Amino acid sequence: MNAKPPEIHSVEDNRPIGTPRKVTLLMFWVLLLACSVNLVVFLHYYYHTKPLKDPSAVLAHPLAPVVLAKAHSGEMKVFLSALGSVTPTETVTVKTQVNGQLLKVLFREGQKVTVGEQLAEIDPNIYQAQLIQYEGQLARDLALLENAQLDLERYQTLFQQDSISKQILDTQESLVKQYQGTVKLDGGLVETARLNLSYCQIKSPISGTIGLRLVDPGNIVQTTDANGLAIINTIQPITVVFSIPEDNIPQVTKQIAMGKPLIVEAYDRAQEKLLESGTVLTIDNEIDPSTGTVKLKAEFKNIENKLFPNQFVNIRLLVDTLHNATIIPMAAIQHGSRGDFVYLLTHNSTVHLKPVTVGVNSGDEVTVTSDLSPGEFVVIEGTDKLTDGAVVTVSDTAIHPR
């Protein structure tokens, strides 16, 4: 019997001829995975345990570029904002108190006038004539009264001598009283005529700045004219009336009760330029039920005439000053479903999400009442791409220590 030749298995027949090649390929992938793991562990250890000596020398790897600001301790002024209307301390519409022709206008438009300064003149002739008439009437009635009083003295003597009846004496006494009343009436007419004559010279009732002339010389002016001759406003000092919510009344009344002047700042419409600083004069004695606000009046020296009557200004009322408050930029405050928070830079170049309680703000700064400490760095730019524990790189020129 002949021996059978050995069988040769092909790959298609799943013979074990390919087994050594598969083992080599598996070992290669295992070694590659081990090297990758070691590399990741090394990088994590290197970058996450390296101490942060200076926030400006943070990790150079540009994972999340941010801008930082340092929390600092200081004073924070607490302001109430409001919209105010400038009102003159005093305002008068100059009107005539008698009817007549306007002869002269003695003021320049826009000039400053003082109390008692003559502003205009009305034709006085008719009032001068009335004065003369009433003075003559008074003189005549005084003479009649004097004659009646002499007759009364004679009648009294004759009555004592039983030479006349009591009726004649009583009639004379009544006549004397009648003339006395007439003389008093004449005296009132004379005083009225003198007063009307003085009104022909129109004088300033207050000190202030006079406006535009509303009537030209030659026109007939009357006491019923609505516009008058001109308007005088006292603008040095000047006042501003503004309103605050009723919830803030205790803050104001507390300062007033302590005798502290409440500082008021008036800004322009854009709230960028400070126009004038003043103090609160008074607070109204009632709350407007339709708006839930109360009015306050503040006084400003207005030396440079930056405030004009009926001008609208933005008001900032200083009601308190916080001392040793922790202050950060407003841009650092982030808002989430669980409340406000900031991204705090830690020692290993990462940022930590830290909840904060926001206090008062002034301008672009705000106080926080949480555990945030002065000297710590918070992120003010680049927060949109951050998460808790993210590695960041800091811009050297954007750190803003105080």
Distance between the termini: 106 Å
Estimated structural class: alpha+beta
Give helix % range: 25-40%
| Uncertain segments | 1-18, 49-62, 397-402
- Percent of residues in beta strands? 25-35%
Number of strands: 22
Largest sheet: 6 strands, antiparallel, barrel
CATH C-level category of the largest domain: Mainly Beta
CATH architecture of the largest domain: Beta Barrel
> Mean pLDDT score, rounded?
85
Query: Could you tell me the radius of gyration in angstroms?
Result: 48 Å
Oligomer: single chain
Q: Could you name the CATH homologous superfamily of the largest domain?
A: Efflux pump adaptor protein, beta barrel domain
How many domains? The number is 4
Elements, N to C (H/E): HEEEEEEHHEEEEEHEEEEEEEEEEE
CATH topology of the largest domain: Elongation Factor Tu (Ef-tu), domain 3
Taken from the alpha-carbon principal axes, the silhouette is rod-shaped
- How many helical elements? 4
| Cross-sheet strand order for the largest sheet | 2-11-14-13-12-15
